[in-house]
Amino acid sequence: MADTQVGAERRRVLIAEDEALIRLDLAEMLVEEGYDVVGEAGDGETAVRLALDLKPDLVILDIKMPIMDGLAAAERIAAERVAPVVILTAFSQRDLVERARAAGAMAYLVKPFQKSDLVPAIEIALSRYQEVAALEAEVAGLTDRLETRKAVERAKGTLMTTYGMTEPQAFKWIQRTAMDHRMTMREVAERILTETPTEGSEQPKQ
Predict the structure, then answer these.
(1) How far is Cα 167 from Cα 159, in angstroms, rounded to an integer?
(2) Comparing 40-44, 135-139, 166-170, 179-183, which segment has the lowest mean pLDDT?
(3) Which residues, renumbered to this chain, carry the PTM 4-aspartylphosphate (predicted)?
């Protein structure tokens, strides 16, 4: 990862974790992977304030923190459209993952985690955040936006299963096809869902 960020702008990351040793390890891993740690917090309230002040590219939040927990902090940060959020959760807190998604988290990491787990979670969060921003730019109404997201998620799954695409590749294909044909992403997604042939076919033509 460090190599891929050479010559490109380094991603700026804010960390919020109330256990100092975990926070230190996390910061060390991020720096080794080529990220800039621009702020650290030990509670959710400080994390929200720093996120609004520093405008990082990514925020990593532990779920269990004093003053304001990670879910509430994620909700505030997501509402302000500051940056994508990755949630840190202990294995026993897996039931909180859906609540984390509802709060606006784009990805999560289960503790204890390795450095090899960190970068994929960050890249997933950044990719999903860009997808949401693109969908929101296309659709103004909340109800339509939710329906569009559902259709696009299902269409991405279809493309991934049928044509072996990765999640980012599937989204980019939908986005590019919509632009090329002057359609909305929802229209493209709905066509994929109704017209996709059987698994193992060649990639669809735009």
Answers:
(1) 9
(2) 135-139
(3) 62
Give this prediction's pTM.
0.65
Q: Are the C-beta atoms of residues 85 and 106 closer than 8 Å to each other?
A: yes
What proportions of the chain, in percent to the nearest 5, are helix, strand and coil? Answer: 55, 15, 30
95 has pLDDT over 70: no
The whole-angstrom separation of Cα 137 and Cα 117 is 31
Supply angle C-alpha 37, 39, 44, rounded to 5.
125
CA distance 17 to 37: 13
- CATH architecture of the domain 12-113 equals 3-Layer(aba) Sandwich (3.40)
Contact 171, 153 (CB under 8 A): no
Fold that domain 138-194 belongs to in CATH = Arc Repressor Mutant, subunit A (1.10.10)
Strand partners, 60: 15, 86
Half-sphere exposure of 72 (CA within 13 A, CB side): 11
* Max CA separation in the chain (angstroms): 53
- The distance of Cα 52 from the centroid of its chain, to the nearest Å, equals 18
What are the sequence ranges of the domains in the chain? 12-113, 138-194
